[in-house]
Task: structure prediction
Amino acid sequence: MKHRTQSWITQGSPWVWLTAGMVSVSLVMVLGLLGLIGARGLGHFWPKPVLEADYLEPGGGHSHIIGQVVDEEEISAQALLDLGQKPPRQEGVVRRLLVKSGNRRVAPPDFRWVYADGLTGVQHAPELMVVERHQWGDFIGRLTGLKEHGEPVATPDLWAEYQRRIARAEALYRRIRAIEKDEIGAINYRIERLRLERRRLELDGVRDPDAFADIEERKQAAQREYQALSRELADLRREAGRDTYTARIADGREVEQPVAEVVRAYRPNAMGLTDKLTFYLAKLHEFVFDEPREANTEGGVFPALFGTVLMVMLMSLIVTPFGVVAAVYLREYATQNWFTRAVRIAVNNLAGVPSIVFGVFGLGFFVYTVGERVDHAFFPEALPAPTFGTPGLLWASLTLALLTVPVVIVATEEGLTRIPNAFREGSLALGATKAETLWRIILPMSTPAIMTGMILAIARAAGEVAPLMLVGVVKLAPSLPLDGNFPYLHLERKFMHLGFHIYDVGFQSPNVEAARPLVYATSLLLVLIVVALNLAAIRIRNRLEDKYHAAEH
Result:
């Protein structure tokens, strides 16, 4: 028995089991974290029932409550007393609910904690509605009437008529947004380009009156288009303001509000499973593909999603050539002496530098030094307003490329080291040059290692926030870096990022309770984006490994 035990230990079996156990624990922790984020984030989009009840406060006050229960907890009465709050009883465990009553503009606050023991006459009336608005969050109450140009609307089915008018108002709102953001935005962009073109002619000393006349003619044509769109926009806004609705809230007041502010209205207590599932999918679609609203605590995250993916793609295009060229030089061309060893040590140390240091470097070197010189050399007509001399997409991509280039160098050099010298010698013996050997034999065989470096670089860059706060990311970007205006990809523009969006919504939001579910949902989306990018790179790497592994044999 003693010999068997010693043999079991000598063979290293305890360490194998220990490693397997630690991997299993890590996997469970990761899956548990993702499960928590997913449950908290994705559960936010499911329509919650609206309760109505009378509430007797611990101090003796009385109120009527209409709202959605978004959270609940059990806490000891003594802990509440220590916090200076008055629980319904002096001992034991107290259950309290976080109720979202909405109506922030007319009856704040929109979230409040209530004790379950103080609720009486709880009911879930089917006519209670939740109205999502473009501003001021949700509105909760009972629909009591509709008005058109201030006159009451007589209809046998008030709710159906309300839904029709919401659909009409939403169509007008989308048309208004399209005119403001796309059509008028494109005209303003053209007018600004014409101004810069005129300024460029003046700086170049051009005196040709025909050139200036052509610019003026194009400017006037753009202004005529602008005026026509402005008139259409004014008509649409008047048309959108035609309808209003009245609703009774928890304190008994009837409130009148414009239908144009409504995104959607629904009655969760009257919805069946199919209706709830349809609503849930619509909310998920809105979250992924729509723009944010209400200080980023409502709506979607598409600009941040688009900016994250675009930045990672640009970073990958920049970092891969630099990392591969550096690794090829160090492994294939440089003499292996103290200098190359010092370079490798420097590369490894560079991988451990805090990311915020790269952000400061990017701001000082790329933005204030390189960007300023680019502006003076290529965009003098725009000065003193900066073009590239301000944080933007290009500088953010370059900063993250500098941050992740050590990973690509190390991974590529490891891949080059694993290629047997017999391949190099055989290629040279057949008459190929060193460059041809490198280009046709060595680099193709090392592409799996290059892809491994890219995978690690993508995984780190996609989640970085600190350096981006200095070199290009913003809370709300007025337009995407990629649009229909020449040159289509605007590298100088600021952009939104999912990581910064999480930070902003989670720590800078004026309404913490409303923002908390979106923090979880956005975190889950960021994790899924990183996983999707990595899976795509891993798939390419595996195909390349299969291809060149077969070639080796």
User: Anything to note?
Assistant: The longest helix spans residues 158-203. Residues 408 and 420 are 21 Å apart (CA to CA). The first strand starts at residue 50 and ends at 56.
